[in-house]
Design brief:
Helix content: 10-25%
Largest sheet: 8 strands, antiparallel, barrel
CATH class of the largest domain: Mainly Beta
Number of strands: 12
Strand order of the largest sheet: 3-5-6-7-8-10-11-12
Number of domains: 2
Structural class: mainly beta
Shape: globular
CATH topology of the largest domain: Lipocalin
Strand content: 35-45%
Length: 173
């Protein structure tokens, strides 16, 4: 995972207290670039605190990316309420909630593209809007797909169809 290992679960104080009891882990409070981070980082000696919170870029791997908008030749439309579509890349695998069904595929990352193998999806039927979102997602997430990562925004696809995701964590302050 890029960007360092982050402590999971609980309020920041509870996480610090729990980790402080484990002598094998060195814990430090980093500068808090945003509320969700609260500065809790396992000190692996590699990832210093963010010098400029405004320049923070979320790691592509290990972050849950939530679809917020689909863009195509006809314009841009936000994801309809009540429909969730996400993607997460971990250990060479892509995990997706596609609007209706869930799935996974093998993935390899390159400088500006993601190579996505054949996707295995569950096969439920859902309301029309959810199925339309799923069709848009699956039409983009296959083969060699261009991407752009900027702060907490991930854009995947081309001008013909672009999926715009945001980190599930609040944006940097």
């Amino acid at each position: 995972m890029q960007g360092g290992r982050r402590a999971q679960g609980g309020a920041p104080e509870e996480v610090v207290e729990a980790l402080a009891h484990d002598a094998s882990l060195r814990v430090r409070l980093a500068s808090a670039p945003c509320a969700w981070d609260a500065g809790i980082v396992l000190d692996d000696g590699v990832n210093p605190p963010d010098p400029d919170p405004a320049s923070r870029v979320w790691p592509l791997e290990g972050t849950t990316w939530v679809l917020t908008e689909i863009r195509d030749a006809d314009g841009a439309w936000p994801l309809p309420g009540g429909i969730r579509a996400t993607l997460e890349i971990t250990d060479g695998h892509l995990h997706v909630e596609a609007g209706c069904n869930t799935g996974h595929a093998s993935v390899s990352l390159h400088d500006d593209t993601i190579q996505i193998g054949p996707m295995a999806l569950t096969r439920m039927m859902c309301p029309d809007l959810a199925m339309k979102v799923e069709a848009a997602v699956t039409s983009v997430l296959h083969g060699n797909v261009p991407y752009l990562l900027s702060a907490d925004v991930l854009a995947v696809g081309t001008a013909a169809r672009l999926l715009v995701y945001r980190s599930d964590l609040p944006p940097a302050a």
